[in-house]
Amino acid sequence: MQSSALSRLSNLNNHINPTKKGGSEDGFGGLIKISPEVSEALSLGKAVVALESTIISHGMPYPRNLEVAKEVEAVVRDNGAVPATIAILDGTPFVGLSSEQLEMLAKLGKKVRKTARRDIAHVVATRGNGATTVSATMIFASMVGIPIFVTGGIGGVHKHGENTMDISSDLTELGRTPVAVISAGVKSILDIPRTIEYLETQGVCVAAYGTDEFPAFFTESSGCKAPCRVDTPEDCACVIDANTKLNLKTGILIAVPIPREHSASGNLIESAIQRAIQEAREKSIIGNAETPFLLARVNELTGGASLAANIALVKNNASIGARVAVALARLRE
Ligand code: PSU
Ligand code: MN
């Protein structure tokens, strides 16, 4: 039922297939659909910012998730770029969602499959609904030619990852897909020093924005020095442009610290994180269920403070990401 409702929505809004020189006639077997607005912006070389959908389905509760998804798109527009939220609906990967599609996704929440690189082919083949994680969103952004993608936090090396081998596919994707990801670093639910090490192994350019330190999502500091630093949207655009011109084929991670006025609750959140990690261990919650569990539990334990901080930093990232996209479009004029 839910699936057929999404199918109706996907037929309603006139999405078009991308064309790709040298690819099949309609690009990627005609599987991907781009919204008319995003398609036009891309063909005119205008600034476009990709947005993920797992943050909507698994990262926040309804209806706040829908409001935030719309607010983030509005922030991107206010800063001069076109937002392109990405999700798989009824087996079709969409780049740029209509408001009906966004609403359906937000309402379905965790009933939608959390879709990383490994899940894409199966979700498409079974005509399922998939909320794309950072790795899957990067893939579709790259396929259609969107160089910049904004999110809250990326996945990383989980604590004890040296034993469990739970390392997010976001990190390997950054190593193989040339998209710049703007995030607030990684949460301290993860092993931050090992995450930075692993990104080095993967050859990913990791730059902190306006600081020397790699940020830890809810707080500005992680105790880890960032490998390099950028200070303006133009700096970011130059790094992306060099990465592209040299055809390095690797992604870029731009880590933006949470705005200071929202990091005040950081210590409270840190202690909630430690407790949530302990509970996850006691309940044997592992694999791709771990991150959504920890996010929801930390929010309960902090009485909503972590959600408020999360929303504030995503919007801040969206504003910077859109300005980077504008700077890059200017550079390429
Ligand atoms: N970290 C967050 N918020 C999120 C996620 C990570 O602070 O919403 C989501 C993103 O979609 C990310 C995914 O790509 O979780 C990583 O999941 P995993 O650790 O299972 O790879
Ligand atoms: Mn994992």
TrEMBL record:
Coiled coil: none
Compositional bias per record (Low complexity), positions renumbered to this chain: 1-14
GO molecular function terms attached to this record: hydrolase activity, acting on glycosyl bonds; metal ion binding; pseudouridylate synthase activity
A Pfam family reported for this protein in Swiss-Prot or TrEMBL: Indigoidine_A
GO cellular component terms listed in the entry, alphabetical order: cytoplasm
Cofactor: Mn(2+)
Keyword set, alphabetical order: Glycosidase, Hydrolase, Lyase, Manganese, Metal-binding
Record flagged with keyword Lyase: yes
Top-rank taxon: Eukaryota
SUPFAM superfamilies to which the protein is assigned, alphabetical: Indigoidine synthase A-like
Top-level enzyme category: lyase
Region (Disordered): 1-21
Enzyme Commission numbers on file: 4.2.1.70
Subunit annotation: Homotrimer.
UniProt-recorded name of the protein: Pseudouridine-5'-phosphate glycosidase
UniProt gene name: LOC113702755
